[in-house]
Amino acid sequence: xxxxxARRGYGPxxxxxxxxxxxxxxxxxxxxxxxxIDADLNGFVRAVVKDLTTDGLxxxxxxxxxxxxxxxxxxxxxxxxxxxxxxxxxxxxxxKTVTRGPKGGSRTVLAPGQKSFIEQRHPxxxxxxxxxxxYIGNTTKYSSxxxxxxKSRIPDYxxxxxxxKSLKAKIDRFFSDKRPDIRIGxxxxxxxxxxxxxxxxxxxxxxxxx
Length: 210
Fold this sequence. Notes:
disordered N terminus; 17% strand; four-stranded mixed β-sheet; alpha+beta; two-stranded antiparallel ribbon; disordered C terminus
């Protein structure tokens, strides 16, 4: 019987060798598609972080004074912690600022002769896969306040109404049907019953479900 099965071309568990080859081919196609999706995901994450690492008043996205906030966007598989202070990073600590205006209406500006400096502090590693949530957020302690700055174009970028760049357009360009779970820190919420009043950054889930 074994010899007859072999002559008929049967493999393990009664599967024909032709069927086995078809399954191998399907597995190869599926693996190739999954690798393509992962590659697109990593390209998308790099592009978004690059977009955010720009000056909102110069056809960019982020509010900029010294440039520390715009330089501090990060992508990870874990919630982004807001722990960085400008004073601990020499390239930005040396940039002097001054306070101008009357008490109660004063504002902080760059001191005469000073310039902002923007440089991506957190390189985007090629490590993201379609089956894990991706978080994109800012690591500065004051990021929740920066998000609501008048110089910020971040809400427009998230909503797709930015004249320069649109997150929705970028999602559509990188992905078609299979869209990974991407969460970007873009909302600022007041934490109640705290003294002084604090704010926290919420994560919006993307892509959009239009």
